Structure to design on (445 residues):
């Protein structure tokens, strides 16, 4: 019977193998802040690059930008965040724990009892999630700035710039990946909900009457994307926002949810934001944000369909989904991370069977020659079986072993991570062989 993943198991693997560390660990850690280690940063970059390619280069009508984190404070008045970006906060009068009222179980919320100790809860207070700071040396009202709580607004305020400089026409999209900050009331579950995180957002500008069509289109596209990065389909589902759940700007919204170790939770939001943001920016800036459709000579404020995915939350999804503790033989098991080969932090492990008789030098040369093709890792330490298992645990999809036969006929043994099958191939074939295996990759379990 396969083991079920717990968050503790995942956190400990991530630390042990260098995916994610607690921030400021030597000072006792800063709660809810996490650092990405050597393997974690590769994984995160691979996810980001795949998203970027999918969402910009593979479409002829989506371009990218990279806007500043700190923006004019009026942006956040126009967007509604100063007024509306709040969560209802309740405190337990007994144990002093703090909760988001909308995230505690119904029975506790109605009875106003603490879910942890059963103590009395305070009435909810609205708490704004934006981090404030001051630009310049003087801490006064005029120099107040916010750290952006979403990357979307950096796109809206550049709508006209992009329109005038890149020859796009509606329908078109602007994509951005970057940090966002929210002063979250509760931040548990590892990197799932943190105060500093990264988003991958795309805002698609359309004619108002086409909103249903494009909303459906992006729902489908985004579902397909998770299939392409190898997420198991039975672990994904859509959740439509009910009237009470809709954000202040949204006409319709679907979340793509994933079944994390702690249960089903949002991974990405697909929102019909109507013309809310561009209309508000017109009002607040005094600069017209409408669009002139050349063919019809019609002027309108575009509607926006937004796809908003958490990058760091996708890292957690990919890690959770990849993990398996597999029984190999009686009394023998292995931990294997089934990363899609396109995302795996290391693509190819290269091992000499033994260090002596020139095999180590030969293996090192092969590894060096392949570095330009993909991320490689050379390992000559310990028994070969142990070396395979170490790569299984960090999700390396392929390993090649150099043995005595290699010296005679220039062949190596290539081992697949998932099936553990081995094939003999020529050294010169390795790059093509792997490119083909990548493109045909299907996770079996
Ligand atoms: P929630 O209601 O759970 O706080 P949300 O609905 O406000 O989240 P969105 O504003 O739609 O979230 O944000 C889009 C995406 O950004 C989310 O689907 C998630 O992947 C990511 N995200 C949002 N907040 C956080 C956070 N605190 N930490 C990590 N990722 C986040």
């Amino acid at each position: 019977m396969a083991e079920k993943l717990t968050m503790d198991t995942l956190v400990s693997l991530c630390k042990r193998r260098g995916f994610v560390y607690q921030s400021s660990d030597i000072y006792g850690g800063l709660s809810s802040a996490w650092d990405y280690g050597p393997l974690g940063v590769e994984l995160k970059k691979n996810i980001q690059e795949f998203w970027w390619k999918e969402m910009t280069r593979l479409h002829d009508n989506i371009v990218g930008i990279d806007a500043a984190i700190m923006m004019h404070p009026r942006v956040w008045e126009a967007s509604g965040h100063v007024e509306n970006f709040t969560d209802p906060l309740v405190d337990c009068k007994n144990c002093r724990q703090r909760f988001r009222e909308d995230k505690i179980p119904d029975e506790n919320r109605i009875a106003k009892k603490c879910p942890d100790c059963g103590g009395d809860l305070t009435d909810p207070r609205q708490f704004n999630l934006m981090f404030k700071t001051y630009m310049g040396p003087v801490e006064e009202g005029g120099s107040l700035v916010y750290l952006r709580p979403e990357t979307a607004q950096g796109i809206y305020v550049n709508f006209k710039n992009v329109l005038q400089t890149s020859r796009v026409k509606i329908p078109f999209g602007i994509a951005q990946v970057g940090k966002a900050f929210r002063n979250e009331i509760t931040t548990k579950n590892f990197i799932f909900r943190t105060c500093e995180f990264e988003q991958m957002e795309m805002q698609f500008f359309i004619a108002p009457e086409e909103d249903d069509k494009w909303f459906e289109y992006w729902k489908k596209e985004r579902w397909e994307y998770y299939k392409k990065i190898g997420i198991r389909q039975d672990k994904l589902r859509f959740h439509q926002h009910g009237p009470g759940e809709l954000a202040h700007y949204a006409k319709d919204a679907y979340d793509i949810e994933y079944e994390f170790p702690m249960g089903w939770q949002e991974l990405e939001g697909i929102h019909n934001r109507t013309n809310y943001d561009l209309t508000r920016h017109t009002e607040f800036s005094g600069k017209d944000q409408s669009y002139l459709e050349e063919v019809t000579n019609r002027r309108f404020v575009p509607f926006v369909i937004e796809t908003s995915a958490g990058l760091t939350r996708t890292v957690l999804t990919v890690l959770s989904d990849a993990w398996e503790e597999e029984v190999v033989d009686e009394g023998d098991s292995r931990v294997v991370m089934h990363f899609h080969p396109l995302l795996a932090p290391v693509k190819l492990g290269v091992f000499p069977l033994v260090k002596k008789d020139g095999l180590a030098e030969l293996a090192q040369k092969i590894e060096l020659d392949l570095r330009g093709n993909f991320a490689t890792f050379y390992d000559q330490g310990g028994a070969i079986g142990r070396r395979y298992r170490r790569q299984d645990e960090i999700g390396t999809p392929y390993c090649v072993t150099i043995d005595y036969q290699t010296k005679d006929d220039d062949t190596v043994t290539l081992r697949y991570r998932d099936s553990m099958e081995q094939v003999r191939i020529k050294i010169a074939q390795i790059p093509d062989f792997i490119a083909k295996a990548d493109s045909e990759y299907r996770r079996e379990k």
